[in-house]
Design goal:
about 15% helix, 8-stranded mixed sheet, binds coenzyme A, UDP N-Acetylglucosamine Acyltransferase, domain 1, globular, Rossmann fold
Length: about 220
Amino acid sequence: MSRPLVLIGAGEMARIALEYFEHDSDYDVVAFSVERAHLKDTELEGRPVLAYEELASRYAPGDAELFVAIPATGLNRLRTRFYLDAKARGYRFASYVSSRAFVWRNVEIGENSFIFEHNVVQPFVTVGNNCILWSGNHVGHRTVVRDHVFVASHAVISGFCDIGESSFVGVNATFNDGVKVAADNVIGSGALVVRDTEPGKVYVGSPARALPDRSSLDVRF
Ligand SMILES: CC(C)(COP(=O)(O)OP(=O)(O)OC[C@H]1O[C@@H](n2cnc3c(N)ncnc32)[C@H](O)[C@@H]1OP(=O)(O)O)[C@@H](O)C(=O)NCCC(=O)NCCS
């Protein structure tokens, strides 16, 4: 039996999430929801777009699960804001794991997380709540991906790594085994991270170095 799901957001990520949930999960997407100030069209892909502020009048917690379909905007802050707000209102969240991902049997994945095709997630890995792993990453054994993280594509995260809360990992980034990435990092595309990082910084290059005088919160996604 299909389970009703409301997608928070109505942009590209929401349309992508609709495809995956509809065609590769047992969820049935019944509506989209955005904040009233961003409500333009009242219908998208044949489903209603509801004002987030009044969502409970159509789908109360218990009537449907949610997935917050927002990418890395504001260093994951926008997705996190909706996730925490809806959680406080009592909603439960779907996570999606592609049927074409390799996820070992004892991997732990939190709620409101989305794992695209061709990710390899090895034994004893933990992926937190509200994380997005775009396609084709390697997440090595014992690694911990903390809450609210976004990993783009084709990152190689070796074993025993720790990816700090709310961080962004760009395409093709590589992490040596055991590296601890601090919270709120932006790791640029193609970076080679060979040692632990400091919070709130932007790292680029090989070996990766922090951009001087640059806060990760100033990066526009
Ligand atoms: C790191 C990043 C966020 C910085 O973007 P930005 O804030 O616009 O910074 P700028 O383009 O002004 O670059 C600042 C400096 O870092 C360098 N730089 C930026 N990204 C770099 C990268 N990936 N590798 C090496 N150097 C990089 C720039 O050349 C520039 O150097 P300069 O000051 O000597 O000219 C961005 O370049 C990046 O890598 N984004 C990830 C892209 C991605 O993975 N997208 C996936 C889809 S979501």
